[in-house]
Amino acid sequence: MAGDDDVVIDLCGLDKSYSLESRPWRRLWQQLAGGEDHGPQHHALHGVDLRVRRGEAIGVIGRNGAGKSTLLQVICGVLQPSRGTRRVKGRIAALLELGAGFNPELTGRENVRLNGPLLGISAADIERRLPGIVDFAGIGEYIDQPVRSYSSGMFVRLAFSMATSVEPDILVIDEALSVGDGEFARKSFERIMALKERGATLLFCSHSMFQVESLCPRAIWLEDGRVRFDGPASQAVVAYDAFLAAARGAGAADGGSIAADGTAGGGPDGGDEALVRRPPLASAAATIDCFERLSPTDDGAPLHSRRDALTVRVAFRSDPTIPCPTLGITLHGPDGRTLSSAGTWLDGITLPRDAAGRVEATLCIPALPLLKGRYTLSAYVLCDRAINLYAAAEHAITLDVVQHDVQQGVVALPHHWQVGSPE
User: Is residue 280 part of a domain?
Assistant: First the structure.
C-alpha cells in the first residue's frame, strides 16, 4: 500500500465560513482585530477530511451551493480555511476562473510573463515556455495586442494555454472539461487527457454524472458543506441520485417543487429538468441534423407495451479531420430522470462516416418493455473517447406508451412463476 509520501492533498477538519455582517465598518473592525467572529456567518465547509494520492482522479459532485467550488478554491490556495489544516504538495493548475489575473491594458505576451510567477514559474522558465503557449493558444499577432481588444474566445484560449503549460502535479477543473469552441475545445480536452495520462492528479467538479463516472474511479459528494460520501464513483452517483429523488418526492409531498440543481444526473451533460426541451447543442466538431422516431410510421401514435418495437434514427455531421465521434441515446421518465441508455462505444459499434463527415445510425428496442406513461428520448454525440460532449438533442422525442393490462411500474421485467414445492 502506498505510504504518506504519495499523499498530495491532505485536508483535516477543514472549515470555511463567511461573515454575514452587513455593516462595512464592522467587517473591517473584525478583520483588523483578528479575533474570532461571533456574528452571523455562512458556513460553506464543515469538518472536511480528504486525502488524495498522487495520480488519483477524483470527481466532486453535489448540488449548487453545496460547497464544491469553495473546496476547490481552498485546495488551490485561493481561499484560506477558517479552521483545520490544508497540506498540498506539488504544482497546481486550476481551471477555475481562467485569466482572472490578466491586466486588460497589457498585451497577451506581457500578461503571460506577469502571471508566470503566480503559477510558480520562474522568469527564465516562462520565456522557455512562451513560444509553446503562444502556439497552442493560436491567437496569432494578437499576442502582442492589449488583452482588452481580445474576443472572449481569444481570452480563454490564452488563459487555458498558460494554465496547462506548467506541467502540473495537480489539475483542478471546475465544470469545464474543455474550453473555447470548435477545434480549440478538442485541443483543450486532449491536453487535459494527456496530463491525466501522464500521472497528474485530477480533481474534477461537474454536474455531469456521466463524465464523472467516465473519468474518475473515485468521487466525493458534498451536501451543505459536508462530505456525505467518499468512495467509488459509481456508488457515489447512486447515493446522490437517491438523495435527489427523495428531495423531489419531499417537494411534491409539500405541494411544491425541488429543482435539485437542475443538472444532476440525466444524460452526458446532466439534465434532470422534467420534459424540458432545450435548444439543440452543436459545435464545430459535430451537429445533429435529424433525430426521429421511425416506428410506428405515425410519429404521434402511441407504442403498445411489450408488443411494438421502438426504432429511432440519428443523423449527424462531424468534422472529418477529427476521430469519428460516438453516439449515445438516453430514455427519460416523466420526471426527467434517465431510465436507461445505449451507447455505440458500450456496444462495440464503430460508426461508418463518409468523406464529408456524415454519419447515420438507427437504434431498435424490440417489444418495448416500458409500461404505460409518457417518456422522452435524447441523443448525444461525443468524442471518440465518449467523454467530451460535441452535440445534443435533449428530450427531443416524446413517446407515449399504452398497455392492455393493469401491471404497475415503469418497466416489465422478464420473470417466471414456479407453482408448488420445488423438487
Answer: no
